[in-house]
């Protein structure tokens, strides 16, 4: 079983991304090979980063818990809205606290926008950031457009096309997670 937490990367009032995070969580929980949960940055409430976790002796509350979950993860799914053609600052702040915890992990990105492009600028920027962290952003993505009209409050899509897109996306998440886990186990075996 693979542990694939979902980082809900926004804290804004009136945020719409939780609808999509619930949708992705539900679809991932239907897969017997996935253990998952939502890591909601609103609940973690990290202060602006002054220093990475590994260099601190006074980490913010819940940062070690968050870090332990990312360290344990076989991969990470990020759900983030596009704000002003980019990603939320709170997400970058949370990502910056850690570094070795992301090394060689597949990162799957789900973007959300109020407009018609599904957060593609956010997606592009998050791919660059995750590469810089030593992670592997997978080629598949799940951009969600017109969020106010696309999902209800419980995370149920109003357009059935999102169901098929989510299934395909999760298939790719699993493929890359398994491929990287297999390579990691080979590397560990050869180092012994």
The CATH architecture name reads 3-Layer(aba) Sandwich
Helix tally equals 7
Mind telling me the C-alpha Rg? 16 Å
Main sheet, how many strands, which sense, barrel?
5 strands, parallel
Q: How much helicity do the residues have?
A: 40-55%
Q: How confident is the prediction overall: mean pLDDT?
A: 94
Overall structural class, as computed from helix and strand content, comes to alpha/beta
Please give the alpha-carbon distance between the first and last residues: 24 Å
Q: Give the number of DSSP strands.
A: 7
Please describe the topology of this protein.
Layout: E1 2-3, E2 6-8, H1 17-29, E3 34-35, E4 38-40, H2 41-44, H3 63-72, E5 76-81, H4 89-96, E6 106-112, H5 120-132, E7 136-144, H6 147-150, H7 161-191
Parallel strand pairs: 1-3, 2-4, 2-5, 5-6, 6-7
Provide an overview of this structure.
This protein is of the alpha/beta class and 192 residues long. The chain has a single domain (2-191), classed as Rossmann fold (3-Layer(aba) Sandwich), CATH 3.40.50.360. Helix content is 43%, strand content 17%. It contains seven helices and seven strands, in the order E-E-H-E-E-H-H-E-H-E-H-E-H-H. The protein has helices at residues 17-29, 41-44, 63-72, 89-96, 120-132, 147-150, 161-191; strands at residues 2-3, 6-8, 34-35, 38-40, 76-81, 106-112, 136-144. The strands form two sheets. The chain has a five-stranded parallel sheet with strand order 4-2-5-6-7, sandwiched between helices. Strands 1-3 form a two-stranded parallel ribbon. Helix 4 links the parallel strand 5 (76-81) and strand 6 (106-112). The longest helix has 31 residues, at 161-191. It is globular, with a radius of gyration of 16 Å. The relative contact order is 0.18. The mean pLDDT is 94.
């Amino acid at each position: 079983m693979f542990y694939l937490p979902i980082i809900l990367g926004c804290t804004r009032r009136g945020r719409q991304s939780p609808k999509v995070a619930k949708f992705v969580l539900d679809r991932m929980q239907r897969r017997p090979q996935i253990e998952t949960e939502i890591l909601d940055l609103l609940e973690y409430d990290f202060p602006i980063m002054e220093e990475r976790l590994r260099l601190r002796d006074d980490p913010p509350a819940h940062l070690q818990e968050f870090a332990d979950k990312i360290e344990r993860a076989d991969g990470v799914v990020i759900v983030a809205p596009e704000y002003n053609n980019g990603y939320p600052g709170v997400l970058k702040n949370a990502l910056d606290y850690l570094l070795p915890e992301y090394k060689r992990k597949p990162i799957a990105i789900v973007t959300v926008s109020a407009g018609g492009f599904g957060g593609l600028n956010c997606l592009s920027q998050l791919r660059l950031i995750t590469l810089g962290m030593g992670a592997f952003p997978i080629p598949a993505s799940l951009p969600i457009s017109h969020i106010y009209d696309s999902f209800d409050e419980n995370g149920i899509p109003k357009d059935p096309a999102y169901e098929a897109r989510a299934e395909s996306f999760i298939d790719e998440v699993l493929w890359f997670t398994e491929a990287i886990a297999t390579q990691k186990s080979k590397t560990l075996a050869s180092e012994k």
